[in-house]
Design goal:
alpha/beta, TIM Barrel, 2 domains, eleven-stranded mixed β-sheet, five-stranded antiparallel β-sheet, 34% helix
């Protein structure tokens, strides 16, 4: 077993989609919130779930052009397509895949998540022919596993499963892994189950509790994952990967933000190590923005003016703001936000 519990554990080679996510090179495309499953642990926000809405890197999108612009801003070399269930709107998903390949070329790597309800042979072949490189099944019902077999047999996509792991799910995880291995699948990912606002009450009703030491994770999920990984090492050949909740913030999102910030930096912004950006604002006594300066650089303030340093995520809107500090000393304002 390789890796560490904060960044991931695995029994074999990481899937290509995961490699690119790790480096912050994947644009995350939420193609639809429509999904006909009702998973108690689903972390999708209620303002997205069940709705025909599109987001890319959490930016609202209304067209393929919006998606392409955000992927270009990020410098993405691939995309992960998620939801909801992308196959619940197959024509839209096929159009997206074709559009991304046309815009960025055949090497632009695209992987997709689906429960498998609509993973018919015809749908899977259509996805492959459109250019999908990798498909990840979340088989909430046993008969959905058939989609894994269809995809392996009928296409040349990389095929695997991606499932949550928590105490009580060890047997199900082993069943899924054994099936993927038996049909020639290429990988299985286990995601550490997380507490999020949409699923918090449902998890508590099932006796699950937040971890004391692993932020947002379900208590005991790491222990359950290690049990399954040790079993997999001796019983199957398919690579199995454990993706912890901490990985998203410590690695995936942070690397994506760093990459985006460096490509989309404004003259008055300073990139910070965690992927956020700091901008300097000269403000009046009433809080009106009079001008900008780059934090850490020299700025002259007139009587009544103050310096404000604002730290935000490198989204197009520069929201949300994570820190604001005002001072007559620009250096002091910066130190307030970065210490």
């Amino acid at each position: 077993m390789l890796g560490d519990p904060q960044r991931g554990l695995l029994t074999g080679r990481l899937a290509r989609g995961c490699e690119l996510c790790y480096a912050g090179l994947k644009a995350v495309i939420f193609i639809t919130g429509v999904c006909d499953e009702n998973c108690y642990y689903c972390p999708v926000d209620r303002d997205r779930f069940g709705r025909s809405v599109i987001y890319v890197n959490d930016e609202r999108a209304h067209s393929l052009d919006d998606i392409v612009r955000e992927a270009e801003r990020q410098g993405a070399t691939g995309a992960s397509v998620t939801g909801g269930d992308p196959l619940a709107d197959l024509p839209l998903t096929l159009s997206l895949i074709r559009g991304l390949k046309a815009a960025f070329g055949p090497e632009f790597h695209i992987h997709l998540y689906t429960p498998g309800r609509y993973a018919t042979p015809d749908a899977l072949v259509a996805l492959w022919r459109a250019g999908l490189d990798e498909i990840r099944f979340h088989p909430v019902r046993g008969d959905y596993l058939k989609g894994v077999e269809y995809a392996v047999r009928l296409t040349r996509m990389r095929v695997g499963a991606e499932i949550p792991i928590a105490p009580g799910l060890e047997g199900w995880a082993k069943e899924v892994i054994r099936f993927v291995d038996s049909v020639g699948g290429h990988f299985v990912n286990m995601d550490e189950m997380e507490f999020a606002e949409p699923n918090r009450e449902a998890l508590r009703l099932r006796g699950l509790r937040p971890s004391d030491s692993r932020q947002a994770a379900v208590r005991g999920a790491l222990r359950a994952a290690i049990e399954v990984l040790r079993w997999a090492e001796g019983n199957v050949k398919v690579p199995v990967h454990f993706c912890p909740v901490s990985y998203k913030d410590l690695v995936q999102v942070r690397n994506r933000f760093r990459r985006t910030a460096m490509r989309d930096l404004r003259w008055y912004e300073l990139p910070l190590p965690d992927g956020t950006v700091a901008r300097g604002e000269v403000i009046s006594e009433g809080g009106e923005v009079l001008g900008y300066f780059r934090p850490g650089g020299a700025v002259e303030l007139r009587e009544g003016e103050r310096a404000r340093v604002v730290v935000s995520y490198p989204t197009q809107s520069r929201e949300p703001v994570v820190c604001e500090a005002e001072s007559e000393d620009p250096g002091e304002a910066l130190r307030e936000c970065v210490t």
